[in-house]
Write a structure and sequence with these properties.
- By secondary structure, the chain is mainly alpha-helical.
- The protein is built from 14 helices and no strands.
- Helix 1 crosses helix 14 and helix 9 packs across helix 10.
- The longest helix has 32 residues.
- It is globular, with a radius of gyration of 25 Å.
- The N terminus and C terminus are likely disordered.
């Protein structure tokens, strides 16, 4: 029988990409974004003047209000992570049918205005808790819950939670060990995203703090604006720069840790030996 000659099939040649069209559009968009963000900062710098930055740090209430905002950001982050991480993981593993309900519940703080939230909280809380500054941290937990949940949910959807949990259980690990040494190392990006959102929101929130009669850094800036507008604008620029540097530090630290652990690869007991691990 005669052999049938076959002609090799070649992939169609890709169309030559037009040079100059996409890079030009990209640079135009970046230029518009830069002007949109940098022009107000330049106007604020011209209004405040460089001499006002030196006197910002010596103003009454500057250090205490800034330290209060930093403490509230740290406490809010800790409470939010302790509540949302186990809850999100448990819903993904055991109760996947409740994910829609949880998404609906966590969207409520965005729908309800912060003024309504703080007024309702002040009406039902006991007097001892209303006079405490840590009530504001609890309120911030509710306010940051939608952003933290969606960041953690996106991180869990990007990995096979069920397979990792079953593999961890087959090695003899308990629930806490699985969460701490298996799931959390594979959720670094989600944890980083939620941390950035929580810190940025707490350091810039004004409405709840002012109605709660707590002088956080944004409240101090607004109050001091009545005495000296130039120093108030300088403090606002300082707060923006400090927040930006803090968030960049978090990003750099998390990126270095991710590279040391192997980048985006799924990690199983990254900090433990390869034998069976008990509780």
């Amino acid at each position: 029988m005669a052999a049938i000659a076959t002609k090799p099939v070649t992939a169609p040649a890709a169309r030559p990409r037009r040079r100059g069209s996409f890079p030009v559009l990209r640079w135009v968009i970046m230029l518009i974004a830069a002007v949109y963000f940098l022009l107000p900062l330049y106007a604020a710098l011209r209004f405040a003047g460089l001499h006002a930055f030196g006197s910002v740090f010596t103003q009454a209430g500057f250090g205490s209000s800034l330290w209060l905002s930093v403490k509230l950001a740290a406490v809010t982050w800790a409470i939010t992570m302790l509540l949302m991480v186990p809850t999100t993981v448990y819903v993904h593993l055991r109760l996947p049918g409740l994910r829609r309900l949880l998404e609906t519940i966590t969207i409520l703080p965005i729908v309800i205005p912060p003024v309504v939230l703080i007024v309702g909280v002040l009406q039902v809380m006991p007097l001892a808790l209303r006079s405490s500054v840590w009530l504001l941290a609890i309120e911030y937990v509710v306010l940051t819950m939608p952003f933290a949940y969606r960041a953690l949910d996106a991180g869990l959807r990007s990995i096979d939670v069920k397979t990792l949990t079953e593999a961890s259980g087959s090695l003899g690990a308990g629930w806490f060990t699985t969460l701490w040494r298996v799931l959390l190392p594979n959720m670094r990006t989600a944890l980083l995203s939620s941390t950035i959102l929580i810190v940025a929101l707490v350091l810039g929130e004004f409405t709840m703090a002012s109605l709660d009669l707590q002088q956080t850094f944004p409240v101090w800036i607004v109050l001091f604006d009545q005495e000296n507008a130039q120093i108030s604008v300088s403090a606002s620029i300082f707060a923006l720069v400090v927040t930006w540097l803090f968030l960049m530090l978090i990003t750099v630290v998390a990126t270095r840790q991710s590279r040391r652990s192997g980048g985006g690869e799924v990690t199983l007991f990254s900090a433990a030996p390869r034998e069976t691990i008990g509780n």
